[in-house]
Amino acid sequence: IQRKFSSSPYEVYFPRNSAMEWQPHSPNCDVCHTSCRGIKRKKQPPNLQLAKRLKIIAERARKNRCVKNQGKLNNKNLMKKITNCKKIHLSTKLLAVDYPVDFVKAISCQICEHILSDPVETTCRHLFCRTCILKCLKVMGSYCPSCLYPCFPTDLVTPVKSFLNILDSLTLRCPVKECDEEILLGKYGQHLSSHKELKGKEIYTHINKGGRPRQHLLSLTRRAQKHRLRELKLQVKTFAEKEEGGDIKAVCMTLFLLALRAKNEHRQADELEAIMQGRGSGLHPAVCLAIRVNTFLSCSQYHKMYRTVKAVTGRQIFQPLHALRTAEKALLPGYHPFEWKPPLKNVSANTEVGIIDGLSGLPHTVDDYPIDTIAKRFRYDAALVSALMDMEEDILEGMKAHDLDDYLNGPFTVVVKESCDGMGDVSEKHGCGPAVPEKAVRFSFTVMTITITHGNTNVRIFEEVKPNSELCCKPLCLMLADESDHETLTAILSPLIAEREAMKNSVLLLEMEGILRTFKFIFRGTGYDEKLVREVEGLEASGSTYICTLCDATRLEASQNLVLHSITRSHTENLERYEVWRSNPYHESVDELRDRVKGVSAKPFIETVPSIDALHCDIGNAAEFYKIFQFEIGEVYKNPDASKEERKRWQSALDKHLRKKMNLKPI
């Protein structure tokens, strides 16, 4: 198109003061001539030089287009060679309905042009078969084969469900010659497998065309075996690539297992399965350790059993003792590395701490209280880490159940219940061990709940369903001591309490599933019975005038007030009262001092959480039933508005009955 340009740079395209004249770019252009005729403009003589130039440009453009198309075609052929999925994927020619071309294009892979099989969508919204796109990305590079937009295997997502439903509802013709059935794409595999079952035997029946008799497969050379099984091998390879990500070994092993189990050769199948799973034919060392512990076998007894079984069966079913010791290391505290921020006060930063002597660090001098006992313990923080690592699966499953990403690093809040109780008589029935007390005390903990702070909410991802089970109660310290021995208990448990106090003000950093996560701990001393609460809180024994561990009530006060109770005691108050008891600042007599400290006579060293004890439960129940029985005697349902005198008569009748028949004091 030629234009008349004016000298002004602003009037290059459309001049303001003169009309633009358009001349035809070629003598045989209908558009230009028509427009000229429509305007009734004076016909211009054709510009031959311009027409010639335009003809050359058009020719070049056509050639470029052909080269580009040729390149595109070559690229597509190359990708089809890479994918090589002709035998795996279904051709669009199998479609039973003559769908529109654009629809067929939408449901077919943009690499192999077959019907989409296990479709995936790229970030640029193009659809491919999963195997096709993965193979192309591996060979051609990380970009979309359709638009060359950057694309990585991790970007691939499954298309929307509605599209997959459309895909599964496509009607196909069965490719088997004698079958004229039309089936849905979703049920295609099922239909085809029914054909294979029918014709499986016919496919593999070998016809011996004379010559020497056919040899058994196992008696052939490796080359001959390969030749005979060539077809089967190709079929297995195709199946493995399509279904199992190319793992031919797993497919063959599974076939072998099924063949063995079909002939009831289960022992051989179990051994093969164990080898497949990397376990060997013997038991796992951790399983052997569990057997040894649960059957109460000593090391020498287990070793005898191990040697006997190995000699009789000729196979190493049980693992040797050194393998058990190695397995035990991973289960005991001190195996997993961790860190505290800030570091724990007066606690070593070393994490490889296993079983510690409970008496280590205690000064042994003549003046000190002599401790004739044996005590073993774990370091509190190492034991907590071991317990958390045991619960790793529960924590991650809990996060998944609440639709939380498993890569969240916290902070997790862990509530720990502490328990301590005497284990009664543990004396040796025979033998001459060390001279130690014949009673034992066990201090343990249970992880009750784990919550994670997500946004502004706390999500509970774990809760112990059986908090009183021995399976979730982790041992922390075992000592041969009497639970009434306040000095021994204080000496051995004080380091544990110091570690606990340090952990309250610090945060644990622990790697779980390859991610460094943070944990905070809340300790609840609720697993103590009344006897031990009195022991660790420094109170007098249960025969004391001050009968309650929660309030300052004496026996007389408790008997006069059966209903109203309130928790008034606390650990800090008990400590203050102990100081008063120890120093007697007001120079009082024993009775006056005892009345002032309300039954505190020893140093409290463990903080217990106030919880209702058996005594108050009994008082509450007794008061309630006492009322119920009175109402029953006076038939209150008949006479709800009884006078005070009548109610007194009901009470005296019940008291009389309790004295005479039950031999109980009404108080």
- Secondary structure tally, helices: 22
Q: State the secondary-structure class.
A: alpha+beta
Main beta-sheet strand count, sense and barrel state? 9 strands, mixed
Number of strands: 13
Whole-Å distance between the termini? 119 Å
> Helical content, roughly?
40-55%
Low-confidence stretches: 1-12, 34-42, 201-211
Mean pLDDT: 83
Radius of gyration: 44 Å
Which shape, going by the Cα principal axes? elongated
Number of domains: 6
Strand content: 5-15%
Could you please describe the fold and organization of this structure?
The chain is elongated. The chain has helices at 30-39, 48-83, 101-106, 130-140, 161-168, 188-204, 222-228, 230-243, 248-262, 266-276, 285-294, 299-313, 321-331, 380-390, 392-401, 486-504, 530-536, 555-560, 571-583, 590-597, 614-633, 644-660, and strands spanning 119-121, 127-129, 171-173, 182-184, 338-341, 355-357, 375-378, 412-425, 439-454, 457-463, 473-479, 507-512, 515-528. Strands 5, 6, 7, 8, 9, 10, 11, 12 and 13 form a 9-stranded mixed beta sheet that branches. Helices cover 42% and strands 13% of the residues. The chain is built from 22 helices and 13 strands. It is an alpha+beta fold and 667 residues long. Residues 1-12, 34-42 and 201-211 have low confidence and may be disordered. The chain folds into 6 domains: 72-194, Zinc/RING finger domain, C3HC4 (zinc finger) (Herpes Virus-1, 2-Layer Sandwich); 228-277, no CATH class; 285-330, no CATH class; 339-527, no CATH class; 537-612, no CATH class; 616-662.
